[in-house]
Amino acid sequence: MSTDQLDTQARELLQQMTNGLQTSLEAFYRLFESRVYQYALTRLNDPHEAADTVNEVMMEVWKHASRFEGRSRVSTWLLGITHHKVYDRLRKRKHRNREEDIDDYSDRLSDDSNTAMDNIIAAMQDSELIRNCLDNLSEAHREVVHLAFFEDLAYQEIARIVECPEGTVKTRVYHAKNALKKCLSQHIN
Predict the structure, then answer these.
(1) Taking Cα atoms as reference points, which of 144, 155, 153 lies closest to residue 178?
(2) Radius of gyration of the chain (CA)
(3) 91 pLDDT band (50/70/90 cuts)?
(4) Stated pTM of the model
(5) If pLDDT is split at 50, 70 and 90, which confidence band does 136 have?
(6) Which of 142, 154, 181, 160 is nearest to 84 (CA)?
(7) In terms of Cα–Cα distance, which of 145, 105, 97 is closest to 125?
(8) Please, which residues have CB within 8 angstroms of residue 166's CB and are 6 or more apart in sequence?
(9) N or C: which end of the chain has fewer CB within 10 A?
(10) Cα separation of 104 and 127, whole Å?
């Protein structure tokens, strides 16, 4: 199913939810459960919390389907809701995940290495090495990498979801790619 077809179907389901048709929520859930779960898991690093987040997000969609204004794709709107639910969970945690300072060494990496980085990520997407390197990123960097590479969203859409300027998203992606390159090169060479 193409992105446009998915969006059209999702918009119809949201309209049906607005009219109270419960089976539309079930269909919507099937369409987006995996994406919401993967996004939440990327941020929370806890499968149980990610599953709970999926349920919270879907309940929010059910209750407030009429709030979708159609100014973006449904998936962008949905991942925005997910972003807020994840943020609430992270804020409630007593301990904060350790932020890793990647700025110290990012200046030493060249821009032409980004193409090689894209090839490495694509070739090793399912490996444990990628998961470990992603886990070493800060929450903010892990989030934009997930949205850019796994959800294939444009920087403008990512900026709407994480509620920051598009330039900040570009900077985060740049630094995250460089950190991933460094992490992968340490294990590959």
Answers:
(1) 144
(2) 18
(3) confident
(4) 0.60
(5) confident
(6) 160
(7) 145
(8) 155, 156, 158, 159
(9) C
(10) 27
The number of residues in the chain equals 189
The whole-angstrom separation of Cα 163 and Cα 112 is 29
DSSP string, the chain: --HHHHHHHHHHHHHHHHTT-HHHHHHHHHHHHHHHHHHHHHHH--HHHHHHHHHHHHHHHHHHGGG--SSS-HHHHHHHHHHHHHHHHHHHSSSPPPPP--HHHHTTS-TTHHHHHHHHHHHTTTSHHHHHHHHTS-HHHHHHHIIIIIS---HHHHHHHHTS-HHHHHHHHHHHHHHHHHHHHHHH-
Predicted confidence at residue 119, as pLDDT, reads 54
* All domains of the chain in start order, with CATH: 3-92 (1.10.1740.10), 103-188 (1.10.10.10)
